[in-house]
Amino acid sequence: MNGQPEGRSRFRGMLAEAAGAVILLVVAVAAMWAIEVVDYVLPANLDDYGIAGWQPSGLIGIVFAPFLHVGFGHLMANSLPLLILGFLAAVRGLGRFVAATLLIILVGGLGTWLTTPLGTVAVGASGLIFGYFGYVVARGIFDRSILDIVIAVGVAIAYYSMLLGVLPNQPGISWQGHLFGLIAGVVSAWVLRRRRSSLTAY
To answer: Strand, helix or coil at 122?
Structure first.
């Protein structure tokens, strides 16, 4: 008798967390657009605060880089995939989504900093997008719930061509950011996977 109310309560909780994730993502993307407008109008050369490879001062760019873009075309190309993949990454809980986002930014950013050539600055939300892609697909493998598997298969089919972005074949594109964002997403899925009980019956 209690199963139906509990199911409804759980569903409402998921909807509330999904709504919270949408608000968070929209605010983040809006901030990216506001920053790009400021950078264009002043101009403020804000892109200098991205990830500067092998420079100690460039480490601060790990936090700032996802919010910085090389022009409105770059930002426009990143906005929709960020919203879609970010939402799919958040459907299993807002707390896990926030934790995954922080791990992707930090782990992916550090990997980018270590592999980006000296004198080069990497900016853009692409690392975060690749991180969400890796997180969603790997979550389906590690958590093995029906919902996670369905989402993982759908994302893999829709965005598989993204994987070409981890190859160093496009001048001016930070393949390092793509590659380590993807790796960070997989690591996040592993760290945040749902642990199964180790209890056994006897």
So the answer is: strand
Kindly give the interhelix angle for 126-143 and 146-159, rounded to the nearest 10 degrees. Answer: 140
How many CB atoms lie under 10 A from the CB of residue 149?
14
CATH at 93: 1.20.1540.10
Q: Each residue of 115-132: pLDDT tens digit?
A: 999 999 999 999 999 999
- Give the tens place of pLDDT for each residue, 22-68: 899 999 999 999 999 999 998 789 999 999 999 999 999 999 999 99
- Counted domains in the chain: 1
Global pTM value: 0.90
How far apart are alpha carbons 79 and 200 in whole angstroms? 47
Q: Is residue 175 part of a domain?
A: yes
Residue of 113, 159, 170, 164 whose CA lies nearest to 135: 159
- DSSP per-residue string spanning 9-75: HHHHHHHHHHHHHHHHHHHHHHHHHHHHHHHHHTT--GGGGSEETT-GGGGGHHHHGGG--SSHHHH
What is the domain range of residue 15? 3-191
